[in-house]
Every structure is written in C-alpha cells, then in structure tokens.
Amino acid sequence: MNHLPMLEINNLTKSYGAVKAVDDVSIHVSRGEIAGLIGPNGSGKSTFFDCSTGLGKPDTGAVKLDGQDITGWTLNRIAREGRMLRSFQKTVVFKALDVEENLIIAGQMFTFPSLLSTFGLGHMSRQRVSGLRERARELIRMAGLWEVRHQPAGNLSGGQQKLIQFASMLMPEPKIILLDEPMAGINPKIIERVVETILYANKSLGVSFLIIEHNIDVVTSICQRVIVLDQGRKLVEGAPGDIIQDQRVREAYLGG
Amino acid sequence: MALMETTQPLRKRDLRIALGAILIVVAVAAPFIGSRYVIHSLIIALIFMLPAHGLNLLVGYTGLLSLAQAAFFGIGAYTAGLLAVTYGTPFYVNLVAAGLVTGLIALPLGIPALRLRSTSFVMCTLGFVIIGQAIAKNWISLTRGDMGLSSIPKPYFALGPLSFTVSGTTAFYYLALVIGALATFAVWAIVRSPAGRNMIAIRENETLAESVGIPTWRYKLIVFMLSAVFAGIGGSVYAHYLTVVSPLTFQMYYSTTMLIIVLGGGAGTISGVVFGSLLFVGLTEALRITPELRMIAYGLCLLVLVFWFKKGCAPLINRFWDMIGGTK
Fold first, then answer.
1. CB B91 within 8 A of CB B240
2. CB contact under 8 A, B213 and A109
3. Which of A245, B34, B89, B314 is 20 to 30 A from B136, comparing alpha carbons?
4. Are A203 and A230 in contact (CB under 8 A)?
5. Which of B272, B258, B262 is nearest to B315 (CA)?
6. pLDDT of residue A203
7. Is B100:B262 a contact under the CB 8 Å cutoff?
8. From CA A142, how far away is CA A146, in angstroms rounded?
C-alpha cells in the first residue's frame, strides 16, 4: 500500500491585484480519504480549487498528484492524464445533449489513445464507443436516471443534472474527484442520493474526494477530515467533530 | 381511421433513403432537365458548398464564428491556378495541392487567432481575407497582381496513357457533383466520429469539455485547418471552372455568402448546408437574369431568415420530415 498522499498542494498563493485570494495554503488529501474544504464566502475556496485543477494559474505553489508534479498542467491534461476530475458550481452538464451523450463525452478522452484516433470511424473506434455506451448505461441506471436517458440534460431538474455530473465523473475511473458545492440548490431527497453516490465511489471504487460544501451536516457525516479556509489562509484542520467546536472557526463564520 | 391502422406508418429512415434517392436522381438528371444557365448556377452552388461545409464544422459543430473562408478559398484558387498555368499539372493534383497548402497555411494563422476570444477572433479572421487580397494584389511576381491568372486550363485528367479534359458545362457539372458528394460524405464521417462528439461538446460548453479531458485548443486548431482544407479545395474547383483567378477572389462578400449558407441552411446540420448552398447561391446566381431585383430578393430572403427562422432552414426541413413521415 502506497502511503504517499493522493493530492498534495504546497504553498499555493494567488493574488488579484492587491488582494491575496489564496495566501500560502498547503493541504493534502490522503489515499481513499474524503476531505472537506469549508470556509465563509470569499475565503478563497473556489480560487484554491481553480488553481489546483489548472483552470487558474497560481502565482506560486506546487501541486502533486499521486506523487507526480502537475503544477502548470492545463485542466484537460490534469483530467485526462492525472485522472483528477472536478465539478463546477454552476456549469453542470451539456444542456442540449441527452443524458447518455453527456456520459459518453465524459469518457471518450480516456478510452481513445490519441486525439487523432478520435477521428476514426472504423471497427476499433465503434467498439470503443459501444463500450463507453455500455458503461454509461450502467452508471445511468445506478444514478436512477434510466427513464430520462434520452432527454436533453437541460430539461431535467437541478438535482438530476448534478447526478448526471457525478455519473460523468465516474466514467473514466478517476483517482480523485474535487467537488465544488455539490449540494447547493438541490432538494434533500437528491442530497441523500448524492451522498450515497459519493460513498459508493469512495468505498467500492476507491476514489478520493476533496469537497467544498456549505451544508455542514453533510460535511460532518461524510468527511474524515475538514480543512477550514478564512480570508485566503488555512485557519485550521482536523476531524469534523473538533472543527465545529473550534472557537476560531465559529468566529470566522460569524465574522468576529 | 381503420385504414390508417392497417397501413404501416412510413418510417423516417425509409423516407430519408427514398428522398435521398430522389435527390440523387434529380441531381444526375439535372443537365437533361435544366437550361445551361441553371446548370451553371448549380455548379456555382456546388462549388460554394465546399467552403460552407468546412465553415459548418467550425461554426455549426465547434461553435467558432469565422470569416476567414474567403481567404482560404482564394489561396486554394491561386494554388491550383498557379500550378496549372506554370506546370500544367492535372486537375486532381491541383485539387489535392490546394487542400494541402491551405490546410498548412491555416496552421500558423490559427495558432495566434484561436488564442483570441469570440469577437476578437471574428475580427482577426476578417483580417486574413483583407491581407490575402493585399498579397494577391501586390506580390506581382507570383500572382501577376490585379491582372490575375488567366487561361487556367479546364480540368484535365491524366492516368497513365489515358487523358481527357472536362470542357463542357454538363461534364463540369458532373465533376462538381462528384466532388460535392465526396465532401458531404467527408463531413458526415467527421461529424459522426467520436471527434465530432467532442467538437459538439466544445460548442456547448468549452470549460466543461476541458474538465472531461478534451484538449479543446488542439481540437479547435484541427477543425480550423480542416475547414481551410474544404475552402481550398473549393477554391481549386472554382479556379478551374472560371479559368480566371484575380485578387477579387479574396472577397468579404464570399465569406459572408458562405456564412449565410451555413446559418441560413442550418448550422450544425449537413443537409442544411446542402440546402443552403442551393438556396442562397444557386438562387442568387439564377436571379442574375433580373439584376435589378436580385439584391432586393436576396435581402428579403435574409430578412425572412433573421425574423422567422433563427435556426435556419433545418427546423423547416425537420418539420417537413415529420409532416410526411410521422415521428418515428
């Protein structure tokens, strides 16, 4: 068993003009762990996410994924070669495409060995796509979306769209998934389902998670460790039970 | 009603095949039905269909609005014209060369241009056309400037001892028809491939596409080059048809015409582009008979399009399928 952390981010800093959105933050996510990242609005969580996943460029800092230095990699390369996937708060699915297409797209770059091979229409290519379709259907059934699999994803409810996004992220057998407020704006019934999916992916598929979430009940129930950011800095980290008792965290949230 | 139940409803697929067959028959029989002028109009429509197909890959499938098609069309025309006039190479050599040269030129142009976002990218591609025209006008030792290249030979084929020239309008029509059909098939193959699915993903949401591992930048560059190849091939056929190429081949008017074909026909659909070429080029070419009314009729067409058919003719075509074939 490898004891290296799955994700290790060291001394990450990102400024917008004079404002330090993220200030020298170092965190790690252990193999097989579900870690939470919380903090009041504007504490730099999303910027931290963007800079760790290649969507934004950090000013300084290093990102190590599964022992490999991926600092400066683009979002698509981190996904494709690193198998570290991320979700977005607002953009969730390809709205005009049906559910099945959404999932097939999410798996394509992991099945085809090169960009040029995706232009193929031959036997190999068709076989790869039908393999993807099979896997997509499996995940669609698991996510309870079988009935709506041929509907445009944009027609479905916000919660269902989040489920599609989850299923999409499981298409390529990821090593680690970073979720940006997965529970925001969805009803409690779907929250349960999302929690179930996360736990299933973690236990059965061995996927590690780093989750930004405001729903503190969800955080305390699924995360093994919680990291708190405040004003761009790491305030504290520890077991969820200790964190919610922590005076500094309470002050940060109450604006003390 | 009882009668309706006993007859099998026509299936959409069968209908498409049937209508496709009718279309092929009409296309093949056209020279026997239409006048010389109609055939000429059809040839022009088939020629413009080529850059429009390329543009559709870019605009309709990848979501990148480009006005550069006329530049690549012109480069293709000059490449074919210069080869034919200088070296007397056969038609298919010029055609392939025109496609390759434009595709390769699109690479260094696309690398900086595709770094730009939306409107800036459109302006940049517009610049390519203007620069292309300036080069064609001023690089006199190569292009003969405003005089242009004249007496480009009609397409001639040489295969070993066999050689023949496509001289008549009818013969040229069949040549253009074959090239148009091959190009349509090529677009179909690209769009149906997994890469086509990735292109649509980029069009729908670029950041989301990135996040599932799609190298969007490289795809956009490849599609930009492919669109140029289609335009270059179109230009080579154009040069051999008109037998004259001048700096006027680099015209904004051509770029907008190609865009109108795609948007008017139905961006992101192949049948839309075929239909759009016939409607917007074939029709304007045919309207030349009444020059006073031509631009007015054209303008009216565009107004109708903008106000009532925002997605082009494609929804109309679809409704037509549904009307005559049910929904299956």
1. yes
2. yes
3. B89
4. no
5. B272
6. 93
7. no
8. 8
CA atoms within 13 A on the CB side of A32: 8
pLDDT one digit per residue (tens) for chain B, 328 residues: 444 444 455 566 777 788 888 888 888 888 888 888 889 989 999 999 999 999 999 999 999 999 999 999 999 999 999 999 999 889 999 999 999 999 999 999 999 999 998 889 999 999 999 999 889 888 888 888 888 888 888 888 877 777 788 888 888 999 999 999 999 999 999 999 999 999 999 999 999 999 999 999 999 999 999 999 999 999 999 999 999 998 988 988 889 889 988 988 888 889 889 988 988 887 777 777 666 777 777 777 777 777 777 677 777 777 776 666 654 4
Nearest to A218 by CA among A201, A242, A193, A200: A193
Cα angle for residues A157, A158, A160 (degrees, 5° grid): 65
Contact (CB, 8 A) for A132 and A104: yes
Count A/B contacts: CB-CB distance under 8 Å: 94
Q: Under an 8 A CB cutoff, do A115 and B189 touch?
A: no
The CATH superfamily assigned to A1-83+174-256 is P-loop containing nucleotide triphosphate hydrolases (3.40.50.300)
Contact B256, B67 (CB under 8 A): yes
d(CA B312, CA B318): 11
Q: Looking at the complex, does the CB of residue B189 fall below 8 Å from at least one CB of chain A?
A: yes
Yes or no: say if B127 and B231 are a contact pair by the CB < 8 Å rule.
no
The complex's ipTM? 0.91
* Neighbouring residues of B58: CB distance < 8 A, sequence distance ≥ 6: B64, B65, B66, B223, B224, B227
Measured in residues, chain B has a length of 328
* pLDDT tens string A202-226: 999 999 999 999 888 889 899 999 9
DSSP string, B219-238: HHHHHHHHHHHHHHHHHHHH
**Radius of gyration (C-alpha) of chain A in whole angstroms:** 19
How far apart are the C-alpha atoms of A138 and B24, rounded to whole Å? Answer: 42
**B209 contacts chain A (CB < 8 A):** yes
Strands (E), chain A: 7-16, 19-29, 34-38, 60-65, 68-69, 84-86, 176-180, 208-212, 225-230, 233-238
> Is the pLDDT assigned to residue A91 strictly greater than 80?
no
Q: Which residues pair with A237 in a beta bridge?
A: A227
Q: Which of B204, B209, B212 is closest, CB to CB, to A95?
A: B204
Candidates B195, B205, B210; nearest CB to A76: B210
Half-sphere exposure of B183 (CA within 13 A, CB side): 34
Residue ranges, CATH 3.40.50.300, chain A: 1-83+174-256
Q: Is the pTM of this model over 0.80?
A: yes
